[in-house]
Amino acid sequence: MAFVTLKDMGSDFHRLERFDGGDFVRWQRKMHFLLVTVKVYYVIVNPRPPEPGENEEESVAKTRERLRWDQDDEICRGHILNGMSNTLFDAYHTVKTAKELWNQLERRYITEDATSKRFIVSKFFDYKMVDGRSVMEQFNEIKSILDRYSQHKLALDEFIVVTSIIDKLPPSWKNFRNNLKHRKEDINLDELGTHLRIEEDLRKEEKSKSEGWKQHRNRKKQDNVKHFFIKVSGFNGDSKDAKLKGCTGLLFANAFYCEQLY
């Protein structure tokens, strides 16, 4: 008999997302793994041992086997129900056996997953990367969509996937996109991810250097302005009146320069 404590069951349920009607195939696979782990999945595929006939004497082993099946069926049914949202729990808690519950869920949600497949296909091909967001962040979102392809047993050639993602790169990556498209050798999805990460890191580094140089140039410009007024006006920084005198005394000076002194 499968020995499952309440603590074990609570820990397993904590790791499993509650099924709310979406992504049934993924949830079902996770639930299948859980039920196999606690050794109760067999009640879904193996029928309940029959009761003895009216005049048939049953062995102790047969009785224990049937009692074990009944207990494991209740545990299995409990796992499935507790892996569902409150709304679905209320809708299915009266189903008597784990097998019946499993089959009802399949009949209801496998059909709906056919529509989900079409949605996932469209979601991948319609996805476009945009400027202003991390390219790697968007690349990982696309990979998440592709993971759902596998969950639904949808096959898509990796060359087509890589080519499509390259075409989805944002406008500011135009030159990089063209370089990738003109490569002689093909690259796989992981290699594409490596290229994108390196390119994004280089762009961040260049941007940081550019901003640092811009700040340095602005500070240098301000210093030059101050030195210009000190030299021409004789201002020594003793008082605001002196600054005002220095500024107003230079008829050819730009108002911007005066602002720098304040």
UniProtKB/TrEMBL annotation:
Pfam families: Retrotran_gag_2 (PF14223). It comes from the Eukaryota. This is Zinc finger, CCHC-type. It comes from Escallonia herrerae.
